[in-house]
Amino acid sequence: MDETGMGARKPRMDAQRNRSHIxxxxxxxxxxxxxxxxxxAIAKRAGVGAGTLYRHFASRDALLAALLQARDxxxxxxxxxIQREEVxxxxxxxxxxDALIDxxxxxxxxxAPLRDALSEDGSPLSLTCQGFITTTEEFLRAAQHDxxxxxxxxxxxxxxxxxxxxxxxxxxxxxxxxxxxxxxxMRSGWAIRGNRE
Amino acid sequence: MDETGMGARKPRMDAQRNRSHIxxxxxxxxxxxxxxxxxxAIAKRAGVGAGTLYRHFASRDALLAALLQARDxxxxxxxxxIQREEVxxxxxxxxxxDALIDxxxxxxxxxAPLRDALSEDGSPLSLTCQGFITTTEEFLRAAQHDxxxxxxxxxxxxxxxxxxxxxxxxxxxxxxxxxxxxxxxMRSGWAIRGNRE
Amino acid sequence: MDETGMGARKPRMDAQRNRSHIxxxxxxxxxxxxxxxxxxAIAKRAGVGAGTLYRHFASRDALLAALLQARDxxxxxxxxxIQREEVxxxxxxxxxxDALIDxxxxxxxxxAPLRDALSEDGSPLSLTCQGFITTTEEFLRAAQHDxxxxxxxxxxxxxxxxxxxxxxxxxxxxxxxxxxxxxxxMRSGWAIRGNRE
Amino acid sequence: MDETGMGARKPRMDAQRNRSHIxxxxxxxxxxxxxxxxxxAIAKRAGVGAGTLYRHFASRDALLAALLQARDxxxxxxxxxIQREEVxxxxxxxxxxDALIDxxxxxxxxxAPLRDALSEDGSPLSLTCQGFITTTEEFLRAAQHDxxxxxxxxxxxxxxxxxxxxxxxxxxxxxxxxxxxxxxxMRSGWAIRGNRE
DNA sequence: GATGAATGAGGCTTCATTCAT
DNA sequence: CATGAATGAAGCCTCATTCAT
Lengths: 197, 197, 197, 197
Fold this sequence. Notes:
4 copies of one chain form a homotetramer. Chain A is mainly α. The first copy, chain A, has helices at about 15-35, 40-45, 50-55, 60-85, 90-105, 110-120, 125-145, 155-170, 175-190.
């Protein structure tokens, strides 16, 4: 009796609209002020009541998680791209870690909730993290198999390294070269043969 | 001119006593609650007015800096000890970085203000940081000279690495092995020959 | 497309089912959290939309009233039982008041809306209350006629006393003896000869 | 060097002023809206920041307790007056209970926090309550000794009765006669010989 | 009928910092 | 010098109720 035909009930068009509008605003907002900005302010800026925001995203982490999903897909695309590239497994891992660092640097202050999510494990963010840890492990295993990465390194550690590297760049460090250096150090940290040695 | 001879005002004594008492309390407090705790609470716990605290320490960072000085001395002692040890320059650098990480982990949440201090450079903490960066550079230079460290690594980068490593351990990660792994990765990152390779 | 026979609307069945399910859930909920709990939560727990809840019960009081009806019947049964018992009219009144107190204590915080209903008189609860006041009056009249109750007492007052007694027990007073004492005091309050005198 | 002469340091005149102004406003406010009114609103009305109110009164109960102190003194005065009156101990108890009921009715909704305070016992209100329970016990003991009150009644129960009686009157009952009736019932509840019998 | 999204005021609380005393 | 009162914006979150779908 509905307009259905298939699955789609009533997507609550307005709800969807609101949800995505909130996401847009939040993206903008977090980009400007970092992920610690006021949720109320986001709601206001989105032109919705605070309750509406809370209905859609029960917590800051939930909002963040939703926000990251879009980027998740980018990251996933990048992963696929990396896997298609004609380079060895070690270089692949390196590129993946670079991608991870970029992802983690999407917003100011993002590394912190991600790190926390790893130990809370009830957080909406932990799923996301877990996924990328797994991916990291896959890349890592290949590199280890090919003798390109130390056998004692674990995917989780690399992920944490990426977080940490992102965190360092977090502050308006003005010093971009440090970020580069850290990436390089990180690489020569897990790689059997350092990249610039 | 002081309280010494005759009329004996209590000024200096008071102030000193207050200052050190505040420091004791703050040390305790930050140990328990991390460095983000309320300054008011510290003042109250120390039994002084908020104004008094502000007179002695103009900002949270100033308090932190003063607090770290005690530890600075420990760290400096450790540095001296390391320099007396009968190991090569590479191992010395490694031990110094370990010491640095320990120092940075003194309080929960300490790495963040330190990182920020590096880019603000008006902060009371930057002096402290600068000192340790310099020390790090000395160790590093020796190691590089002996071929134990990559020539492209800078002291500042190692300091940041130490901060980052401390930051990662910050959360109740429950996973102590990660911390170890990060230290190892960090080492094989700057070292020409990794430690467990 | 429906599950029934032919044209088959689901109206009545659905509605009835919903209504009673809401009631079940609300009963459970109010038992746990007291009558001041969130209606939204009840709707959610019942698996219906907030609107549905409101359709069935226009207000919290309406829900409460419906909820009490089930208990009303119990109470009515108890009234009938009391009237069949082989005791004098005074004892009957006493037992009825005990029954009333039990009824009023069904949920945490119930006495308050009942009290309010008495003075608002547009409330869905006032009907319920009125009924019991009337019953109380009947018992009371008999007792007064037999010389067992003070002539100056009114049914309404006894009802209020029951409410008040229930209200006192409302808090987790931990002190059950107080509840007993209050019942006793209440009895010797209206009775011509106190029960433990 | 102040106006003192003895202990009084600096009473923080402005603080005192604020404090009492808040109290005045709160008194007014609670009289109008009942004790459940918004604390923020009180702060605003008093022309102080919310923080100021919280500094002076850490919780609603604390504010209430302070507010009641003025009345406490009245009540205490009344107690003294009653004790000077030329009536027997039973009548004294009756008058004391009346005073208690009046006190408890000072603000709309006051009985509830008082009741809760009795079981929480960390509440700023419990002290006040305890005091009056004790006083009640003294009056009661005298009456019991003179054969004017049932021996099985306890001071605590009478206090609760007073609370309950006040609570009943709490709603805009419009029915003043009920309040009277309840007082009478309460009296004939504890008294060996009812007052209107 | 049912749904559940939206509202949005309103509650409580915290805190860095200033300034009169 | 020390005090600690005052500020007051901000933060987070809840909930009864309405209404478009």
